[in-house]
Each structure stands twice: as C-alpha cells, then as structure tokens.
Amino acid sequence: MDKNPIATVATAWSDEHTGQGFILIMHEVLFFGNDLDHSLINPNQIRHNGFQVYDNPYESDQDRQMGIVINDTKRVPFTSEGTTIFFKSRYPTDDEMETLPHVVLTCETPWDPSGIVMPGGTTPTNRVAQKVQSLQFHGTNRHHHMYETNCIVH
What we know:
Elements: E1 6-14, E2 21-30, H1 43-48, E3 52-54, E4 67-69, E5 75-77, E6 79-81, E7 84-86, H2 94-99, E8 102-104
Parallel strand pairs: 2-8
Antiparallel strand pairs: 1-2, 3-4, 4-5, 6-7
C-alpha cells in the first residue's frame, strides 16, 4: 500500500452571503492528489494552530455554531450529511491564489499527533489495560448487543 505524502495544500472558500473569497492554507496534511474528490482535514490540527473549531452538530449555543472562526467577523460554516461534517470549497484558480486573502489554518511545524498534549490531556505514558467492559447504561437510546463498538487501547 502506498503511503500518501504530507503536503501544504490550498483550497478556495467563498462566503455565500457576501461573496468574499479566501484561500485556506493547510500545512502538514495528507495529500491524495486526484484520488479523492474532497479534502480530509483534522480539526484538532486547526485548533492546535489557535483557531476555534466547532464541530458538534448537537450544540445549541448560537455562539458555537459549527464551523471554523477565522476572524472576529468571519466563520467558515460547516454543514452535515449523515454523520459527515464538512464545508464546501474548491480548487483555487491562479488569479484567486494571487488576489484573495490567505488564512493559514495549520502550522508548518511537523504534525505528530501522538506527541500533542491537548488541554485536559496528559503526556503519553506506558499503561496496561487489564479489562475492557461494555455497560448497557452507557449508550443513549442504544442497546449494547445491537451496536458494534470499536475500541482502541494503546
């Protein structure tokens, strides 16, 4: 299996209400070339670079509507289809690359997710899991015998 290279990529996004366009730059992301018709973006990588990212579709607070806050007045809104959360963007033209404002969403520093300590997190240490148990009362409107759960213990 070929490993996808890490790259710096750009996508063009325009505010559907004002028509204002932006070039969104993302460093240290997987590059799929023409293999995908969409981009895969890690919201924690954007958060790590200082942007507020709201990706909870169940949030009721209007100040935390789904999207990326790029400045005091502009937000890239997310939408969803099923459980997929996304925003619509496009391949930028040469003219757009030259004339539209650029917003750098992720840091140029190499992205190593295993070495990141998020707020409330801890530094990775060696641990041993002795038991993994499923409890029926942990799922809302779910019965643990009817749904498969993937669990990764590292």
